Fold this protein.
Amino acid sequence: MDDRRRLLDMLAGSTGCTEALLLAWGFKPALLAEVIGAGLATATTERVLAGGTEVEVTRIRITDRGRQAL
């Protein structure tokens, strides 16, 4: 399975993944930019509590167009 399909499959089976987690799983920043630029996924910045500290994370979510591409 190619990386783009694997990424979309992972996003489809979740409520979105943080950019940091996707990078840790081995997805390249260029691939993330490609699927977002193609309208297959969106990226939103959120504030979350981590260890009592508020931090900003970028969450990547699949779009309807991304689901159709699967």
Notes: The chain has one domain: 3-69.
